[in-house]
Amino acid sequence: MTGGPGAIRVLLVDDQDLFRAGVQVILDAQDGIEVVGSAGDGLEALRLVEELRPDVVLMDLRMPEVDGVEATRQVFLPERVARRERPVRVVVLTTFDLDDRAATAIRHGASGFLLKDTTPAQLADAIRTVHAGNAVLSPGNLAQLLERNLVAPAPAPPEFATLTAKEREVFEAVARGLSNAEIGARVFASESTVKTHVGAILRKLGLRDRVQIVVFAHENGLLP
Length: 224
Fold this sequence. Notes:
Arc Repressor Mutant, subunit A, 2 domains, Rossmann fold, globular, five-stranded parallel β-sheet, alpha/beta
């Protein structure tokens, strides 16, 4: 295993031993990434998330007993989240593009999904991306994925009314996938100010990261 101090700690979850072994070889060759463990099913994954405290979990969707969707839901149960000193990010792995199960996992808290035939470079980039709090698929694809089984937007919860006018501008820009630099140019603010606004939005709405802002916006019909 490689990585050293400050490395991104990764947990691999897949019911195929050979697949896990192959991914570990790929990640062990990457600077700043360390595979700290692997699990063959969702139940074992939940135990190792609490025991090993990974930064990123690569979670297969289709597994016996406890599948990746249910395991993701349980990873982000409020009582589990409250016990952690630092956040854990989940990226689900699937064989199918725009998988409805992936949409459900994202609603439960996953930061996006990857196809199992992704390249080693894309896999490493995805781990670094979600560790930074961003999504690993484009906002357009995420919107398409979420809207496939969205019956009707829910009314915006009362917490949304607590956002200031500037925070609502930033909220919409984040939900459309703009970077902090792009948002700053749009709302005439520095990147550090945008980060402050994003932090306030996450806190007020009880969300974990920018991915959840995208989910929140689409599920509540908040994008014109």
